[in-house]
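Forum > Structural Biology > Help requests

Title: Can anyone predict the 3D structure of [pt] molybdopterin biosynthesis protein MoeB?

Hi all, first post here. I have the sequence for [pt] molybdopterin biosynthesis protein MoeB but no way to get a structure on my laptop. I'd be grateful if someone could post the structure tokens.
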Amino acid sequence: MLNPDLNSLELTTTEYERYNKHLILPQIQIEGQKRLKMAKVLCIGAGGLASSILTYLVSSGIGLIGIIDYDVIELSNLPRQTVYTPKDIGFPKVNCAKQNLSIINSDCKIHIYNDKLNIDCTDNFAIRLLINDICYLLGKTLVFGAVIGFQAQVAIFNYQSSSNYRDLYSIERLNFTSQLGSCNSGGEFFN
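Reply #1:
Sure, ran it for you. Structure tokens for [pt] molybdopterin biosynthesis protein MoeB below:
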């Protein structure tokens, strides 16, 4: 994505009209707008901050946006979460966000995820902690898996208020464990 092939991508006549103010900016121009069209963004959470960010991302011409949230819209959300309307109350945020954002820009593809279960298959402790923290804060169950050599680990965290990944590994322990190796240094059989 850092150096996409922009030659094969064309802007439509409608896109030239829609983004004409972007195209005259020296920092964007046609190449920058093509990069926006090719961009993929994942937004975790669809609350107050995400409401504004998603609106601007869709308006700017981002090509694909993924939205993750499991919450439903309440009346108390509406003053801050401006992507929603009173008719959305009681419905899942991701569904309403997709519908309302598609009205703003139907050219933007939007994928929504409102699952309660997440599976972590990463090979990086910092990312694992981040995924854990997000799942913990959102009250989502996390299935964790790791492989090094011929050994594998599987665990379930945050299930019905059970322990989370941080309860298992402190930062100090992770720093020590990371010195033991990863699948990059120790190899892997299962992947």
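The first strand starts at residue 40 and ends at 44. Residues 2 and 35 are 9 Å apart (CA to CA).
Shout if anything looks off.
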